[in-house]
Amino acid sequence: KFYNNSDGKEKISNMIKVATLTRKGFMAGDISTVMSPRTVLHWAENTEIFKDIGYAFRVTFLNKCDDTEKSIISEYYQRCLGEDLPESIINS
Predict the structure, then answer these.
(1) For residue 29, what are the CA distances in angstroms to 9, 21, 36, 38, 60?
(2) Contact 52, 25 (CB under 8 A)
(3) Cα-Cα-Cα-Cα dihedral sign, residues 46, 55, 57, 7
(4) pLDDT the model gives residue 33
(5) Each residue of 19-64: pLDDT tens digit?
(6) What angle do CA 52, 53, 56 make, to 5 degrees?
(7) Burial state string for 37-71 with b = 16 or more CB within 10 A and e = fewer than 16
(8) How far apart are CA 58 and CA 70, in angstroms?
């Protein structure tokens, strides 16, 4: 399967870290949308379909977030996955 290797397991672990940061951000009042475990599963499935973790993140979660919070959530993504979301993803 797609995630059944060390690289895949690390990706899943980092996806869960993003979700954890959204919960912390929500509790701190920084953002108003939380990434649920089900959303993480959809994100993983979409990554498998699109073969692009950043694009899958956008269509699964980021597009549903308030525009004013997208930069904070993109920062969570960058912190956990070690890569920036392309600027076009953040601004669209």
Answers:
(1) 30, 12, 17, 22, 22
(2) no
(3) positive
(4) 94
(5) 999 999 999 999 999 999 999 999 999 999 999 999 999 999 999 9
(6) 85
(7) eebbebbbebbeeeeebbbbbbbbbbeebeeebbe
(8) 10
This prediction's pTM: 0.90
Task: Collect contacts of 16-25 with beta carbons under 8 A, ≥24 apart.
Answer: 16/40, 17/80, 18/57, 18/76, 18/77, 18/80, 18/81, 21/76, 21/79, 21/80, 22/73, 22/76, 25/72, 25/73, 25/76
User: How far is it, in rounded angstroms, from Cα 82 to Cα 75?
Assistant: 10
Q: Give CA separation, 67 vs 8, 34, 51, 84, in Å.
A: 30, 15, 25, 17
